[in-house]
Design goal:
- By secondary structure, the chain is of the alpha+beta class.
- It contains 9 helices and 23 strands.
- The strands form 3 sheets. The chain has a 10-stranded mixed sheet.
- A hairpin with a 3-residue loop joins strand 12 and strand 13.
- The radius of gyration is 22 Å and the shape is globular.
- The termini are far apart.
Length: 517
């Protein structure tokens, strides 16, 4: 059976949306499923490196290189031997002539024929280029860099989150690939676990809700079928955390019984197989440890948090969102913090959020469901004397700027930092009407809230100097356009040694549903 792009698009158009064709893939061969995916917007690199290349977790002398051998990216099983030998090379030039490191790595079926190479012996603060070769073919060339050491005058990095495949193309990632940044932080919801959503979408999921390792592998491969996502991975090194949809909506990592634990194990393994993550374990099957503390010269300390794996159920008197070990680790980081900007990569909102004056919390799946632990951590920050704390957050599909207080219900309590919650890459936000009505209500209900904008999609770029931390909210014009233009909606600053943020005068008249004067 030969699939015809014109017929597929015609069938989709007849009912008003491309996504309705996706269920056809359930009865197709792997090659036909890929052809259907490509006909409806997915694109892949040449086999066997269909899912591209990536790098991550840069240290001063090391970076992790990633790829996955997947000739048929949407197939339940790859037509490959049990182990494929993969060659890798690192050079200082894009043509890969000035080689500084090379080697071979086994890609085994056990880990989906993925490869994670922790390359060492590199120079600090240096750009490198890399590629892989296997089965007589060579991958695209990726670009990465190591972390600098010593004194630093600037660091520039981006953050992205929440990229529902069915909600639009990844124009934001296309723009991130072209940004002059040192690294990217992904704040979670890299994939979504549910089945097709129907309706008027440019594309959709290609299978029912995912449950097994094979399901999660195919879903990751589907998402990497967006060329802009692969381009952003190939352009910069990434730091990664996760939120709930990498497994299932609103899950707790320590509850749910055997079925959820099996599903979580499958999801975590597939996540690892598709990410440039530095795994600290020595077993054949990964149990990824996400939280880590990294330095970027003397200018920035990055603490990546895992707010899913160790949490209890929400709204319990002694509930935890961090888990005992991660909380102790975070407190120790605070106690031993260097003289630098301190950035917490945080997947869900730390600041309190009430829906209306006198109302309850909007979502207790975020830190609002773990009140005692939030107060404990923020009191510890205050008592330690830590300064220059900035929290970068995803999840909400809208942009917020908040003062972080030790007690959000007491406007006289100390401000200990600033939280920037970024727009989503594509995941649907509330309607413009909802935002217009509820933005002012949230502003009145949350005195620490300085800014809210929920009608746009994009990512944040942070520019950090010894004197100032600046957040540029970068937004795309249309998430239905894979080449959407990008602009800066607004810019906020935090001055070194001064608590609280302020909006740049040049962007203060930009559209927003709430802005505190």
């Amino acid at each position: 059976m030969k699939l015809n792009r014109r017929d597929l698009l015609k069938a989709a158009s007849a009912v008003g949306a491309l996504n309705v064709v996706w269920p056809l893939s359930a009865g197709l061969s792997p090659a036909q499923a890929r052809e259907a995916a490509e006909a409806l917007g997915a694109q892949y690199d040449p086999a066997p490196f269909t899912l591209g290349v990536a790098s991550g977790d840069p240290l001063t002398t090391s970076v992790v290189l990633w790829t996955r051998i997947a000739p048929d990216p949407l197939a339940p099983e790859q037509p490959l031997p049990e182990v494929v030998e993969v060659e890798w090379v690192v050079a200082t030039d894009r043509a890969l002539r000035r080689v500084v490191a090379r080697g071979k790595a086994p890609a085994s079926a056990t880990l989906g024929h993925s490869v994670h190479v922790p390359v060492g012996g590199l120079r600090a603060g240096t750009h490198y280029y890399y590629a892989f070769r296997a089965l007589g073919k060579t991958s695209r060339v990726g670009r990465t860099r190591t972390a600098p050491s010593g004194r630093l005058s600037r660091v520039r990095f981006a953050a992205a989150n929440c990229q529902a495949f069915h909600d639009g193309y990844y124009g934001a990632h296309r723009a991130i690939a072209r940004e002059d940044v040192d690294f990217v932080v992904h704040l979670g919801d890299y994939i979504y676990e549910h089945g097709p959503v129907g309706g008027d979408h440019v594309r959709d999921h290609d299978s029912p809700e995912i449950l097994t390792l094979t399901d999660y592998r195919r879903r990751h491969a589907l998402y990497k079928g967006d060329a802009s996502l692969r381009e952003a991975h190939a352009a910069h090194p990434w730091f990664l955390t996760w939120d709930d949809h990498e497994v299932v909506n609103d899950y707790s990592g320590t509850g749910g019984g055997a079925p959820l634990m099996q599903r979580r194990a499958a999801a975590y393994q597939a996540w690892y197989e598709h990410m440039p993550h530095r795994d600290g374990g020595g077993s054949s099957l990964p149990d990824p440890v996400i939280h880590r503390n990294r330095r970027w010269g003397d200018l920035l300390e990055l603490s990546v948090l895992d707010l899913r794996s160790y949490r209890s159920a929400q709204n319990l008197p002694g509930g935890t969102i961090l888990g005992a070990d991660q909380k102790a680790w975070l407190k120790e980081n605070v106690d031993r913090a260097p003289d630098a900007w301190h950035v917490w990569a945080n997947s869900i909102m730390l600041s309190q959020l009430r829906g209306r004056p006198g109302g309850g919390y909007m979502f207790t799946d975020q830190w609002d469901g773990f009140l005692a632990e939030r107060k404990e951590v923020l009191d510890h920050v205050h008592k330690s004397g830590l300064e220059d704390l900035v929290v970068i957050t995803g999840d909400w599909h809208s942009a917020f700027v908040d003062d972080i207080r030790t007690d959000f219900d007491d406007t006289a309590s100390p401000v200990v930092g600033t939280e920037f919650t970024a727009h989503s890459v594509t995941s649907g936000a509330y309607s413009a009407e909802w935002n217009a009505t509820n933005g002012p209500l949230m502003g009145r209900a949350n005195p620490h809230l300085k800014y809210f904008e929920g009608n746009r999609y994009g990512y944040d770029v942070y520019e950090v100097t010894p004197e100032r931390f600046t957040t540029h909210m970068r937004v795309i014009e249309d998430r239905r356009d894979p080449h959407s233009p990008v602009s800066t909606l607004t810019t906020f600053h935090v001055d070194r040694g001064v608590v609280g943020s302020y909006e740049d005068p040049a962007t203060k008249k930009s559209p927003a549903q709430y802005r505190r004067d």
